Batch of 2 targets.
Target 1
Amino acid sequence: MTNSMKWGASLAILGFALSACAETDETSASATAQTASDTSAAPSTAATNSSEEDTMTPAILAPYDGPYGGVPAFDEVTIDQFEPGIKKAIAMALEELDAIANNDEPATFENTIVAMERQGAALNRASTYYGIWSSNLSSPEFQDIEERVDPLYAEYRSARIENEKLFERIAAVWNDKATLETLTPAEQRLTWDYYTDFVRSGAALDKETKERIGDINEELSKLYTKFSQNLLHDEEAYVTWLTEDQLGGLPDSVVDAAAATAADRGRAGEYAIANTRSSMEPFLTYSEDRKLREQVWRTYYDRGDNGDAYDNNDIIRQILRLRQERSRLQGYENFAERALEKNVAKTPENAMNLMMSVWPAAIARVDEEVADMQAIADTNGDDITIEPWDYRYYSEKVRKAKYDLDADEVKQYLQLENLREGMFWMAKDLYNLDFEQVDDVPVFHPDVRVWKVTRNGALQGLWYFDPYARAGKRSGAWMNDYRAQQKLDGDIKTLVSNNSNFVKGKPGEPVLISWDDATTLFHEFGHALHGLMSDVKYPSQSGTSVPRDYVEFPSQVHENWLATDEILSRFAKHVDTGETIPDELVAKIKNAGTFNQGFATTEYLASALIDMRLHTLADASDVDPDAFERETLASLGMPSELPMRHRTPQFAHVFSGEGYAAGYYAYLWADTFGADAWEAFEEAGSPFDDATAQRFIDHVLSVGDTVDPSEGYKAFRGKELDTKALMRQRGFPTE
């Protein structure tokens, strides 16, 4: 998810950075690795000004205090601080904007652009806490606050855009070409970012049009919040209860997780399958009860689409209509055209071309996978035709038959804490990072632990780890930063977090995770490393503040290190015997590396294609989301045996905010970079090659948004991107 997605409701409109998330999470539009978006920079959390020094009672406004350059005061934040605190922070931020706009001195880079980098520090901190509560500690009480607070963010954004004097000063700096030439390339890019984002948001338009855009933003903020709350309701309200005689085929780890889920819901001694991906997937993979598989499948894929008070279809209709109206007021034909303008892809056509170049190979592979599954079902005399709730179950049987690979056998070697240590070892070998757990930092929940990160003995930042599912926490996995690295006001170190939804088993026992979940773990840690390795001056260019279709690239490539011999031989230890994973099992894992790529690629691409087509409609005034989904998938030749990864009524990446709206293609675009980058390590002869890792630091991880991503990548690779690397990695034909 990398820019906090649920803060997508308010912050995506406001333009605050969101949080990074793996494609594997289901509601991750609320989460990037911090991307700078539209008209709001990521202000320095270290900088203070005189207005901040006045009676700052709420902890959510106060500058971070304590060790490591200051840390969030989670031990002092209470839910009643959010509404008054954010109102106060917005008022302070508006005063700061007015001070910049009304400066009597001629506009310069320092008194305008740099001043904007420092502006809004208290609001940035308050919004960080707000996003954390929204994603991790949501409750009915907090959701009531969201409904009142989210529109305030939209009003604030409108006030920025409607501040004509402010825009005039930014434009004056950008149009002063002689002065621009004296700036560094990073400063020129920063100035271009501010100017372009203000123009894209309508700052150059007439007053009436700007006011209408402001009204639209406010309406959208409310709709994003409602969409998210409806989805959270369906994830928490629906559960499939099992009796002991309905556990057939389920491994002990899945049974233990179901027992723990039931106990968490006050029904100890029973078994429950929660309505989340982390519960749904293993159940569908192993349960022998086909009717129950269908029930769990339908419950999960009907989230937001139950025709009740929590149905999201009408909300989607309104969102699409408003996005289209706003885009046209801003001078764009459609929302996608605007959304991709500053991305690496540049245009919806380029994104569609990449997706459609992969689509035929993906659905052809699905046909092969279904044929293999149907053959096993027929041989077993099961008398069925493969349906979506059968795909994972029979796919696992095919895996065993073709590759002699048992996913549950592999899982016995994948202990969460061992893999965390493996990620640390990887970071040490590649980037010379050391991790030391500390207990002198407040946390927002007892499950959260914190590590101090150093490089060559010097502090690099802190890493917060929140691994477990709980009530009030959105599903999926994501990365946030709580403070961006910067050197504008001293040497400020970043604070990053990884958040997951692993299900706790029995108390005191190691948590075992699937290979897919382990891959996600390494993916999200890649976002964290992107933040930790940042080395820039200006906060809004820091770390993961890069285009949406590039931010997933470093995390995608980091997934590859999980399967290396160096990691598996050290950290894949059997939960009972402590023995290292056998070479023959590792060989089976690698041999099956492209297994089920038809399913994985097709379910993802179906969602990405629906997203792009919705946002390039000639007329989005009255879309029926369910009908559009059915008709579009039929026209694409979508195989009937599997669904979209995220059906439209539950597509939080796209409708709980704007982080991934018309941008879900970004995972495929970024994975193209990731596949080619991994080949660079392979060509060097080792996944831990020092010279390749140093180039990756120098041209990708450390530079943030100070350079054009395509140019940075070319400097790392030494040549243009090879788009066929993705097809090779997935085992698809390249011709």
Note: The first strand starts at residue 3 and ends at 5.
Target 2
Amino acid sequence: MASTNGTGPSEVPAGTPAAEPAETGAETGADTRTETPETPETRLGRMTTYRLRLSYTGAVVAVVLLMLSMTPSLLPRGPLFQGAVSGASAACGYMIGVFLSWAVRYMFSRDFSEWRGRTLSWRWWAPLGVVALVGFVAGLWKFREWQNEVRDLVGESPLAWTVFPVTVVVAALVFLVLVLLGQGWGTLVRTLYTWLGLLVPPRIARVASIAVVIALTVFLANGVVAKYSMQFLNASFAAANDQTSETSVQPTSEWRSGGPESLVSWESLGREGRTFVSHGPSTEQLEEVNGSRAVEPIRSFVGLGSGDDLRANAALAAEELVRAGGLGREIIAVGSATGSGWINQATVDSLEYMYNGNIATVSMQYSYLPSWLSFLVDSERARQAGVYLFEAVDAKIRELPENRRPKIVVFGESLGSFGAEAAFGTIPTLTARTDGALFVGPTFNNDLWREATDQRDAGSPERLPVYDNGEHLRFAAEASDLEELDSEWNEPRVVYLQHASDPITWWSPDLIFNRPDWLSESRGPDVLDSTQWIPLITFLQVSADMAVSTDVPDGHGHTYISEIPRAWAKILEPVGWTGDEGEEKLEQIIPLLSRSGSL
């Protein structure tokens, strides 16, 4: 965050006609021009006193971005998140305004040390204050209107009147904290500049001071803050990993990891692993839906309690699959979990219903962190886990005679979809090595997803691209989208499920400066037409949307349940699960599907 000019030397070059006066934030009209140049020694003494002063240019840009931050994005935002977005937007606007003001003055100056300025009177600040107040109130009123429209689209209740005071307070606090941090950073730069000014020419001192403080900031952020923050987070989430949810009970079946004869202990599975192996449809439920004798599904899982070597854990997961008899099942599903080991139960339950239990699912944990943190710091481990697990399982399958090999499918949701893709460098490789794949809510850096999206057929939208005329790979927000193309859908089939309102899929650093195609083309059915791309603002809004992406009803945001079994039915076409009979079964099992655990 750039600092203000109220604590440093005057910043308007003598004799230069200024488009706007220099500002210090003082509310007096007195002329403060200094005829006697300030020496480095006197400046150093003055630097010991710190006062919070606001840049007028920075305040103007902050007000503009503050009002723009009220515009709608993908999902409903409550007052807390809107306050955070508004405060951060205003702080970024302030930083931009201060920097631009500084840059313009610096370019027009002959000698940076000769700058002279004058203070701004209340006649400048009063109109800006009125505009800011009126604009913020009007923006909040319009914000509530827009948010209620978004809430109506996704089936949520309208915002209460409390949105107004809570948003104001949170926005003010966030803005103040960020500005204070930025001004503290600027004070450090100016202090170092003053010390160096005693030894070297002013311009060299200024460049050197900025470079040193930036280097120090990066070092502290990466070497100290990041290190100890990650140690704290890992310790905290490792403790949570040792807990067991109330609905998880150690299996008594040999077909589940953590049960009798298992190669891994119940305690080693982790919280999400224990949830995974202790849930799912019973044989009685399977028989009720399918009307025939069922077998108990196999669920194999290896947690970080078995060690931190991902390659060894993947090999152990494959051995556990073989131990449970997975190679004798009709389908083997290789699932990539999110960081903490979470798997959407609907994805696995659907397959178990469709194959009447004649299926084995295998997965593994690679982090203690939840999905969003793993996405930031553990993405390489997600990639490694996906590669090691698939290769270990595939090696076991290839040991069998070709006519006895089960079908193999892969799946993953969110960061899990990123890991599930990792074993396949190209889409043809994916279709050559599997019998089908389902990727749900992909992230912006999924390699195969990005390839298919960027190379989509001309005329198809980014939110639902058509790749290679849909020969093997298709995109859908709902199952009916899979049938939109007239071309033949050849096997093996790959599906990406992605909602138009899913911020996990559409978030990207590119949003800061580039308009995405999905906001240039026609909107999805659950995205307002009034949602527009605004540089920086949209990035902050979608970032906030990610935090609430699973707190919306099924079919919106990052919540996927009912479309998962429909997608599997299209991918694999199990006997009895297509046509009218299959639709009746799908309607029967959808209410039974669970989404236990958390991202």
Note: Strands lie at 298-302, 331-336, 359-364, 407-413, 437-440, 473-476, 494-497.
